[in-house]
Structures are given as structure tokens and as C-alpha cells.
Specification:
Radius of gyration: 42 Å
Shape: extended
Mean pLDDT: 82
Oligomer: single chain
Length: about 425
């Protein structure tokens, strides 16, 4: 019995002594497993942090790109806004002789609404400067004449694109005007009626601003067409002009101009003609208060049948700054042109116009204008006519973007050809809103 107890104690002691060894191995395994688990968790946590940081960086970059894109768009739209003017003009015009006829004058009241759009951006390059000038204006017309109401429209577009590099400048121009308004008149033999018309101009120019001998070179091509019933009045005209300057003072130049013109009439080629003209003059600041151009010239006109005739021109355009608030625009011209009619040798026209603008010092919102003009025409057949006109206008800026314009014009023409004589009075009122 004692031996059995001793043996049992011995086995228990062996088992007891062996237990720490087994316990030590199991704890190492457990610790290893725990460390592996924590390493995996730590790597997962770090990976999650990196992913979050990456997403944050990508989001910040995207937000920055979107912000930069919005800034560029905003700057682009702001530049467009700075270079753009939009006008809405509502007006009414009364004319007591809308067709300029000698007898049975017809009065008319025409209302209209014009939408105007001007866009003039410019781009500064490293070696040049580019300017775009675009203008559009037009809208409906409604006539409330004695013969009943009528409607139409007038649409005008003109634009130019120029590039300047150093002393050189190149330019292309284009324009078109469609007129189907009720007030359009087409007069022949004293009779007048509404006739729709379409006019266009295309061309370009090259300009060299050299120190002593600058020059201009310009080309223009014009067309004018009427509705089919009056297509005999259709015409085409092209001109090539070269002007050489001699700079005598910093702001004054002597000029020598050569101009060649061709006139073509698709429905009546017998009226085709070409003209060579040469003019001499001065341009620029003629005095501290006067600037403009004075020139005289001679021309030769060759008709389709081969006959030639000589003519002459005198042209004066001056701007006189009398005071800071008062200035005058003076135009004088004399033109002797060989006639297209077989029974006449020439047509001579002398014209004079004086425009006056006054800005009253007591109000920056007011502007007054006045105009007088006179034209005297004489043909070799001794048929003469004189046209007198007088006009007044006022402009008041109710707001910076809103102004009212009122104008009155009187015209009287006296002619040996009684059917060409007429008198008319025109009164107009316009309301202009600019954006």
C-alpha cells in the first residue's frame, strides 16, 4: 500500500515538474500568435491611414484643379464682360415727308427696337498685339403711315481683326447691312417706294509706321443689291488705295495718296467705269487745338465705251477743340466727277457741314449737339440744286447705363428739276439702355 502511494506521488511529482515546460511552450506560441495578429492589425491600420491620406491628397488636388478651372472660367467671363457692351434702344421717329417727294408728301411715324452688341477683346503677345472689333445692331421696324401699318427690319454687322507687331500692322474688315425697314426709299423721277436692299463690304489693309516715310495700303470691295424688281440698281465697287506719308513734325505728316476704283453694274454694263485719282495734303495736329486732314487732288475717269474725262477733288476734315466743353467738327469738300449720262459732261458738288458738341460744365449728364450743312450740285446741263439742313440734339444720362436722346432735323432741297425738290422735318426720341 505504501509503495502504491509512493509511486502515485512520484508520478504526480513528475507531472508537476513537467507542467512548467509544457506551459512555457504554449505561452510562446500564444505570444507569437498575438504578435502576428497585432502586426497584421498594425499593417492594416497603416494601410487604412495611407489610403485615407491618399484619398485626401487626391481630393485636395482635384479641388485645387476645380478651383483653378473655376478661376480661369471666371477670369475669362470677366474679361468678356469688360470687353462687351450690350445696348437696347427703343425709339420713335416722325417724318412728315418720308419719301422726300415734291408733291403729295406722306408722313410716317416709325417705331423700332434695336439690339446692339459690341465686343472688342485684345491679346498681348510676346511680339505683338491682336485686336478683334465686332459690332452688331438691328431690330424690327413698324410704320404707322397714312397708307396703313407696315413692318420690316434693319440688321447691321461689322467687324475687324488686326495684328500689330512693332511698326507693322495688318487688318481684315467685313461688314453687311440688310435694310427692309418701311422707311427705305428708292427714288426715281420724283416717285418713291419701299425697296429692300443689301450692302456689304470686305477688305484689308497693311500699315507701316516707319519713322520718316510711313505708308498705308488698303483694299475694299463693296456690293449693293436691291430686291429683284429693282435689280437694275445693283452695283459692285472695288478700290485700292496707297498713301505715303512724310513726317515733318512729331504729330503732323504730309501725304500723297493714289487711289484706283472700279465700278460695275451687272444689269447695265454700259455704266461700268474705272477711276485713277491722285491727292496731296497734310494730316495730323495742324495746331494745338486743330487736328484733321486737308487734301486736294485730280482724277481721271474712264467709261466702258473707252472715253475719258478729268475731275478734281478738295477735301477738308477738321476737329477744332475750342474749349474742354465745346468742340466743332468741320467738313468741306468739292468734287467734280465726270457724268455717266450721255448728255452731260460732269457733275460738280460743293458741300459744307459743321457739327458742334457742347458739354455743359454744370452737369456731366447733359450733352447738346447742333449741325448745319449745305450742298450745291451742278451738272454741265445747267441743272442745279441746293440742299440745306439744320439739326439740334440733346442727350441726358438718367443713369450711368440709361440715357435719353432727342433730335430734330430740317432739310430743304431746291432744284431746277422740280420733281427733285422737297422739304421734310424729322423728330426722333430714343431711349438707350446699356449693359
Amino acid at each position: 500500500m505504501l509503495k502504491i502511494k509512493q509511486l502515485s506521488f512520484y508520478l504526480f511529482a513528475v507531472l508537476l515538474l513537467s507542467f512548467p515546460c509544457y506551459g512555457e511552450v504554449n505561452r510562446k506560441d500564444v505570444i507569437s500568435y498575438n504578435l502576428d495578429y497585432y502586426d497584421i492589425q498594425e499593417e492594416s491600420r497603416k494601410e487604412t491611414i495611407i489610403q485615407k491620406e491618399t484619398r485626401t491628397v487626391l481630393k485636395q488636388e482635384k479641388d485645387s484643379e476645380n478651383k483653378e478651372r473655376r478661376r480661369k472660367i471666371k477670369d475669362f467671363l470677366k474679361k468678356i464682360e469688360e470687353n462687351t457692351i450690350i445696348r437696347v434702344t427703343g425709339y420713335g421717329t416722325f417724318n412728315d415727308n418720308v419719301y422726300n417727294t415734291h408733291s403729295n408728301p406722306e408722313a410716317d411715324f416709325i417705331t423700332g427696337l434695336d439690339i446692339g452688341f459690341s465686343y472688342r477683346p485684345d491679346w498681348i503677345w510676346e511680339k505683338g498685339h491682336t485686336v478683334l472689333d465686332f459690332n452688331f445692331e438691328g431690330g424690327p421696324r413698324v410704320s404707322l403711315g397714312n397708307s396703313g401699318s407696315d413692318s420690316g427690319a434693319n440688321i447691321m454687322f461689322e467687324g475687324s481683326l488686326s495684328h500689330t507687331r512693332g511698326k507693322y500692322k495688318g487688318e481684315i474688315v467685313a461688314g453687311i447691312e440688310s435694310d427692309s425697314s418701311p422707311a427705305t426709299s428708292y427714288t426715281r423721277g420724283g416717285a418713291a417706294e419701299n425697296v429692300d436692299s443689301l450692302e456689304s463690304v470686305y477688305g484689308g489693309g497693311f500699315y507701316a509706321d516707319w519713322e520718316y516715310l510711313p505708308f498705308d495700303l488698303e483694299y475694299r470691295y463693296y456690293t449693293k443689291t436691291f430686291e429683284s424688281s429693282e435689280s437694275t440698281g445693283d452695283s459692285e465697287r472695288s478700290s485700292l488705295s496707297f498713301t505715303e506719308y512724310l513726317r515733318i513734325f512729331s504729330k503732323m505728316k504730309v501725304l500723297l495718296n493714289y487711289k484706283y476704283e472700279e465700278e460695275m453694274y451687272p444689269s447695265n454694263s454700259a455704266k461700268d467705269a474705272s477711276t485713277h485719282g491722285l491727292a496731296f495734303g497734310v494730316t495730323g495736329n495742324l495746331s494745338p487745338k486743330v487736328e484733321g486732314t486737308i487734301k486736294v487732288g485730280a482724277k481721271t475717269r474712264e467709261k466702258a465705251n473707252g472715253t475719258e474725262a478729268d475731275g478734281s477733288t478738295v477735301d477738308v476734315k477738321l476737329l477744332y477743340l475750342f474749349t474742354e466743353n465745346l468742340y466743332y467738327d468741320l467738313k468741306l469738300s468739292k468734287d467734280v466727277t465726270p457724268s455717266d449720262y450721255f448728255d452731260e459732261d460732269y457733275n460738280q458738288t460743293n458741300s459744307f457741314s459743321l457739327n458742334c458738341t457742347y458739354l455743359p460744365p454744370f452737369s456731366e449728364r447733359l450733352k447738346f449737339t447742333g449741325k448745319v450743312s449745305f450742298a450745291d450740285s451742278e451738272a454741265s446741263s445747267n441743272i442745279t440744286s441746293q440742299t440745306y439742313s439744320f439739326g439740334l440734339g440733346s442727350e441726358y444720362a438718367m443713369k450711368r447705363w440709361l440715357k435719353v436722346i432727342a433730335e430734330y432735323a430740317f432739310t430743304k432741297k431746291e432744284s431746277d428739276d422740280e420733281l427733285s425738290s422737297y422739304t421734310n422735318n424729322i423728330l426722333s426720341l430714343r431711349l438707350v439702355r446699356e449693359f
